[in-house]
Write a structure and sequence with these properties.
This protein is of the alpha+beta class. Helix 11 (233-243) runs antiparallel to helix 12, helix 12 packs across helix 14 (295-312) and helix 12 (249-257) packs across helix 16 (335-350). It is built from 19 helices and eleven strands. The mean pLDDT is 94. The strands form three sheets. The chain has a seven-stranded mixed sheet. It has a two-stranded antiparallel sheet with strand order 6-7. The structure holds adenosine-5'-triphosphate and magnesium ion. Magnesium ion (MG) binds at residues 12-13, 26, 28. Mg(2+) binds at residues 26, 28.
């Protein structure tokens, strides 16, 4: 048998994004009035663990049976579901988080919008569908992520919804979030149109203090005005994060955590942050451990945290120091790391008030020096039979010399 076309609706993100004029990623459907047996008979493949979700045999789009849910325990597994064939489309839409996510569309393009989603798109409001919003802490993360995606269009969180987010925080629900899920939302926010809006939204409801206290505490900590016209370290972190939005995800993450050390600078030395790079390393490692951040993200983040000042000051560095920097970055084995490091440092340098379009000549300077160091001809050293430590020292010396002459060349070409 086949399913009656009239009982299938496009729902959620696809409807929302279509109305917003944004590219539609994945299409989710709701099937009303069917049983799991009928779905299986129609050739759909069951995939849901907690509740019945099916994949279309050809398109592989997700088809879920209309359902209602009831909170039974803390955390987002703490729900009981009802997927009986009596559940209506309106019932199903009522359990969704935001009005803009609670619209459905028929196959011939008619909108079903019982909770005013279209109006909220017009008003640019992220608004909860019902008080049941406060039953699932994942929604706090989702709203923050939607802000990172929609803030540039003028969207904001409705004050009543923000209140429910605060309530979730005060009820201790944020602690029940699993690390993997939090990481997934952080990661995806970093490459949205306004990544900072993710963190600002979490901060506005008090969730940032629980999820990322290392970033939350940066607000209110001053930096030297000469280097940081924005003064506030939290603001710098946000500006830098936004500068990194088009970079690879691991680079954007490195930018996100590059100044965590400034959060533990002793009061009496402020607004100076001498030594914040080394101080930040254990904090970066702790964040990575907490969210089970992939190792290659962690490696780059630690390197950027530890060595970013050397990029900013590279024009003044001795060739030996530059060579050592490339070695520390593991650049001779993984040249890409040097490029990623440079991009992260540039986001830091331009992530300051009024400096978004500032030139960062250090970037190409570093690229040129690295190229020179990498391309030295080691053949004569092998031919001379050098080995072990002696060989290592000789290669290093070759690289230092290459950096030295490249520096000279760059100075003459720009003077
Ligand atoms: P994206 O563009 O990231 O896919 P989305 O809104 O489509 O956004 P999905 O995770 O694909 O997000 O979920 C599909 C729909 O399911 C949502 O639009 C929303 O209606 C509903 N939904 C998802 N997660 C939740 C949740 N935690 N609470 C309530 N409704 C949810
Ligand atoms: Mg979706």
């Amino acid at each position: 048998m086949s399913l009656d076309e009239h009982d299938i609706y496009l729902v959620g993100g696809a409807v929302r994004d279509q109305l917003l004029g944004l590219p539609v990623k994945d299409r989710d459907y709701v099937v009303v009035g069917a049983t799991p047996e009928e779905m299986a008979e129609a050739g759909f493949l069951p995939v849901g663990k907690d509740f019945p979700v099916f994949l279309h045999p050809e398109s592989k789009d997700e088809y879920a049976l209309a359902r209602t849910e009831r909170k039974t325990a803390k955390g987002y597994h703490g729900f009981a579901f009802n997927t009986s064939a009596e559940v209506t489309l309106e019932d199903d839409l009522a359990r969704r988080d935001l009005t803009i996510n609670a619209m459905a569309m028929t196959a011939d393009g008619q909108l079903v919008d019982p909770y005013g989603g279209q109006q909220d798109i017009e008003n640019k409001q992220l608004r909860h569908v019902s008080p049941a919003f406060a039953e699932d802490p994942v929604r706090v993360l989702r709203v923050a992520r939607f802000m990172s995606r929609l803030a540039h269009l003028g969207f904001s969180v409705h004050p009543d919804t923000l209140q429910l987010m605060r309530q979730l925080v005060n009820d201790g629900e944020i602690e029940a979030l699993v690390a993997e899920r939090v990481w997934q939302e952080i990661k995806s926010s970093l490459n949205q149109e306004t990544p900072s809006a993710f963190f600002e939204t979490l901060r506005a409801c008090g969730a940032l203090r629980i999820i990322l206290p290392e970033i939350d505490c940066l607000y209110g900590i001053p930096q030297t005005k000469m280097w940081h016209p924005e003064v506030d370290t939290g603001i710098h972190a946000m500006l830098a994060i936004d500068q990194a939005k088009n970079l690879d995800n691991d680079v954007a993450f490195a930018v996100m955590v590059h100044d965590l050390g400034k959060g533990i600078t002793p009061q009496e030395v402020l607004p100076s942050h001498r030594g914040h790079e080394a101080a930040g390393v254990p904090l970066v490692k702790a964040v990575c451990r907490r969210f089970k951040v992939p190792n290659h993200y962690k490696k780059l983040a630690v390197l950027v945290c530890r060595w970013h000042l050397l990029a900013h000051t590279v024009m003044e560095l001795k060739p030996e120091t530059v060579e050592k920097l490339f070695a520390r970055l593991d650049g001779y084995r993984q040249p890409k790391l040097v490029e990623k490091f440079i991009q992260a440092c540039q986001a830091d340098a331009t992530g300051r008030w009024g400096e978004a379009f500032k030139r960062y000549p250090q970037a190409n300077y570093l690229r040129n020096l690295f190229k020179a160091a990498r391309n030295v001809d080691k053949q004569p050293l092998f031919a001379a039979g050098l080995q072990g430590r002696e060989l290592g020292d000789a290669i290093r010396q070759l690289r230092v010399t290459a950096i030295q002459s490249k520096k000279q060349q760059l100075i003459t070409s720009t003077s």
